[in-house]
Design a protein that fits this description.
There is one protein chain. This protein has helices spanning 6-25, 36-43, 47-51, 55-58, 88-97, 110-123, 160-170, 190-193, 196-199, 209-218, 239-248, and strands at 78-82, 102-107, 128-132, 145-151, 171-184, 207-208, 222-230, 251-258. By secondary structure, it is of the alpha/beta class. The chain has one domain (6-258): Rossmann fold, CATH 3.40.50. Strands 1, 2, 3, 4, 5, 6, 7 and 8 form an 8-stranded mixed sheet that branches. The longest helix is centred in the first third of the chain and has 20 residues, at 6-25. 48% of the residues are buried.
């Protein structure tokens, strides 16, 4: 992996914040990646789940897959959603855990957090707590959650090893991961990876699939497996984005992993 300087890291995070502030505040705008309820349906969300949450949550959806295909969440679980955006996934998770469960919604973008709070209130979901923060430094205690879910977020994180180690840390022994993310099938140049503005485009921050899965194993996870793949960028309105994605073999995967019980 290409080393990212602290200055580049801050520029990357600021570019990401700007992009997703725009998605939050201008949901009707066309972006180079699929968004909104049509994107939810494109990546596999059942209409029944989408109908059960406020339309104002799905309108700013920017995920890349359907992580709930892993079926990791149980009634009464404590769940952490990393990069929760306007709330599509955490609202679905809160229904799956029921009122006896707890859901933490972590996001670094102010506009998304505010929209999520409004959507949770609109849905009457009182088991959701919104947290400000980043995947590389999760503001929760060790071994505090049963499930971590994330959708199209970790490819945007500059230091993925730190983020994966943080996921491992906050999970209880036996805890489960369900996530969707972007991977590539060939190496991306150091020049591209060192350009902060390109990270928010959702491709240049991605890792090769086997390296991505291997990094989860390296930090201690077991039962690491990609269970589904999707040509996500075929849904882009941008011909340039589709061409770049195709040239790098960029696609979405849904994967699972487990923290060992001991």
């Amino acid at each position: 992996m290409v080393a990212i300087t602290s200055l580049q890291r801050e520029h990357i995070l600021e570019s990401v914040r700007m992009m997703y502030t725009d998605v939050a505040e201008n949901p009707a705008k066309e972006f180079h990646f699929p968004t909104g309820r049509p994107a939810c349906e494109f990546v596999g969300y059942p209409k029944t789940q989408l109908d059960a949450i406020p339309a104002t949550a799905a309108e700013s959806f920017a995920g890349v897959g359907y992580p709930f295909a892993v079926d990791a969440i149980r009634q009464g679980n404590t769940v952490l959603d990393i990069g929760s955006g306007s709330g599509t996934d955490v609202l679905i998770a809160s229904l799956l855990t029921g009122d006896s469960g707890k859901c933490y919604a972590l996001d670094m973008t102010h506009a998304m957090r505010e929209k999520l709070k409004a959507n949770a209130a609109r849905a009457g979901r009182r088991n959701i707590e919104v947290l400000e923060g980043e995947a590389e430094a999760i503001p929760l205690p060790d071994a505090s959650v049963d499930v971590v879910t994330s959708n199209g977020v970790l490819n945007l994180v500059p230091n993925k090893k730190n983020a994966f180690a943080e996921i491992f840390r906050v999970l209880k022994p036996g805890g489960r991961v369900q996530l969707a993310d972007i991977v590539v099938s060939q190496e991306i140049s150091a020049e591209c990876r060192s350009n902060p503005k390109l990270w928010a485009e959702c491709i240049v921050g991605a890792m090769e699939k086997e390296d991505y899965l291997g990094l989860f194993r390296d930090v201690g996870f077991q039962d690491v497996e990609a269970i589904h793949s999707l040509d996500y960028f075929s849904g882009s309105i941008s011909e340039d984005t589709r061409k770049v994605a195709a040239s790098l073999g960029a696609h979405a995967i849904v994967m699972k992993a487990t923290r060992p019980k001991t």
